[in-house]
Amino acid sequence: MLYTEIFPKTLRKVPKDVQVISHRFLLQAGYIFQVASGIWALLPLGWRVYKKLEKIIREEMEKLNAQELLLPSLVPKELWQETKRWETMDPPLFKLKDRHEKWYGLGSTHEEIITDLARRFIKSYNDLPLALFQIQDKFRNEMRPTGGLLRTKEFIMKDLYSFHCSEEDLDRYYKKVAQAYKRICKKCNLKVIVVEALSGSIGGTASHEFMVLAESGEDKILYCPKCKWGINIEMGKKINSCPKCKTKLKIGHSIEVGHIFKLGIKYSKEMNAYFMDRDGKRKPIFMGCYGIGLPRLLATIVEVNHDNLGIIWPKTVSPFDFHLINLNPKDKKVNNFARKVYNKLEKKGFDVLYDDRNESPGVKLKDADLIGIPIRLLISKRTKKKIEYKKRKEKKSKLLTINQLVNYLKK
Question: Can you list the domains of the chain with their CATH numbers?
Answer without folding.
Answer: 3-307 (3.30.930.10), 322-410 (3.40.50.800)
